[in-house]
Amino acid sequence: MELITVTNLTMQFGEQRALDNLGFSVQSGVTGLVGANGAGKTTFMSIALGLRKPTNGSIRVLGLEPINDGAKLRSLVSYGPERNILPDEMPAVDFVKHLAEVRGMPRKEARNRASDVLWLVGLGEERFRAIGTMSTGQRQRVKLAQALAADPKLVFLDEPTDGLDPLAREEVLSLIRQISEEYGIHVMLSSHLLEEVESICDNIVILNAGQLIAAGQLDSLTGQSSGLEIEFVKIDDRPDAIDAVEIALQKAGLTVIREPESPILRIPDGIDQTLSDLVRDVVADAGARLQRMEHRRHSLEDLILDSPS
Amino acid sequence: MSTSENAKILDRGYRKFDGERLGVWSAIRSTAWQTTRSIFGLGRKARHKFFPMSIIGIVYLIVVIQLAVVFLFGEETAEFLTTNSWEQVAPAIVMILFAALVAPDAIARDQKNGMFSLYMSTPLTKPTYIAAKTLSVAGSILLITFGPALLYLLGKTVKGMGPDGVGQWFETFGRLLLACVLISLFLCLFGLAFSCFTNRRAIASIVVLLAYMVTAVVSMTLFEETDIGANILLINPIETAYEFGARLCNSPPVVSEYGEISTSLVTLGFFGWFLASCLILFSAYQKREAI
Prior knowledge:
The complex is a heterodimer of chains A (309) and B (291).
Chain A: E1 2-13, E2 16-27, E3 30-34, H1 41-48, E4 56-61, H2 70-74, E5 77-80, H3 92-102, H4 107-120, H5 136-148, E6 154-158, H6 166-181, E7 186-191, H7 194-200, E8 203-208, E9 211-217, H8 218-222, E10 225-233, H9 241-251, E11 264-267, H10 273-286, E12 289-297, H11 300-306
Chain B: H1 24-39, H2 46-73, H3 92-113, H4 115-120, H5 126-158, H6 165-195, H7 201-225, H8 237-248, H9 263-287
Helix pairs in contact in B: 1-3, 1-5, 2-5, 3-5, 3-6, 3-7, 5-6, 6-7, 6-8, 6-9, 8-9
């Protein structure tokens, strides 16, 4: 199921191009919107919510055009802002209830759901506490709770783990995973932390300076072969063994990447059985000793570092 | 066997919502109510209630004392109830003080605590957000404009000193209501327009009061020191609004110099300021980043 379809999307602010001719689609599940600060993540979210009209191109969210059907769309989606500032004097339950009402819940339903969702995010006992007295982690949970209370189909979360310690971050991430898997609420979260996106996302959209680096299912993107990586054990009486392997592989027409004096060789070409056999034979002939040989997969970091931009 | 003492709810679950979602009007109503609660400090500490409740208390107390004197001490004190009901509307300075207090509270806080971004991610849009805030602030100001005047009119009526006949009574009531609604709306828009440029409530309140004082001083100085004539008084928005209400209610001029200005010019001046406030407010919000 396609949640978001983006075609030739461009957003220009004066001389600066915040989004440059983006085109991709987002499937169901948890989607990570990744990029450094200033990559265009928040701009993309504001366009997806119908709060900003793109300079060019089109976007459809849940089958609706955000600019033309903004109010209708925003009753079906929720948003958790990046800023960690909330009404200090308001009890968490009043805050969540109020936003559920604004998003279209009847008053009684909003009251019940506010309570339930605060229990869900682990703030059941704290729900009558003023938000201003809560820790950063608790405030992040309140932001998550307000986004969930109106039973949205899709939630946009802008840097949901910002300012959290590692333990609190893990808890919030597992909560996000839970709401997607157990309650069928799709999530798009923006983050500049690659490892947290890799740990919970089904799909990924990577932006860099407004340009699309990659978009698709995380498994298929990171599953693409990045060649073979071979690590050797250094043996004192055969110091030239690794060099010999390297030379033999190059003579066989392969590209071999090796840092100076490193015991690790990388062969970025696609691997197959012939290559594996060749490596086995060359290693045996050189008298080298293997530590490991593995099919290397792309990490998100590789995808970003290998991008032309 | 478990007892009630050690019983514990482990998972309250999460329910899907199958009912009908209420529309934009519900969002406006909820936002307006939440704003009103904030304005009067409901659900907040006592210090937040002090100023708005004090002003409301004082304007009602004045009317209540007048009514009490006449009802308790008889006909010889009847002159307390001989003025036009319009004159029981809070004085201009009190109205602007109240507007300067409540309007910044309604919008500056949202800017500061991020609620504006959250509101914009709901079915509310900038115009409907302003509508919700206007509903709340104007409704609050109506409490100090229409409330005391209506109480006074009812007191006069009970005492047999009100308008003659049912028709005239409803005409008086209608004029009073219309004047108070228009002036409350104007004060609200004026207050919001001059307080929407900052997220600091205290500064916003000072800006609103300064806008009033500067126009008041300039208009009065120009009137007294030059030969421009009384029409220059129309650059004072609050007195002009007050005078407009007085004319609508067939009440004597608030400031005697306004008597020299024709009703059509007073009306034009009032709606000119009304429109200017709307333009300032909407253009400021048009440029405002939602997220």
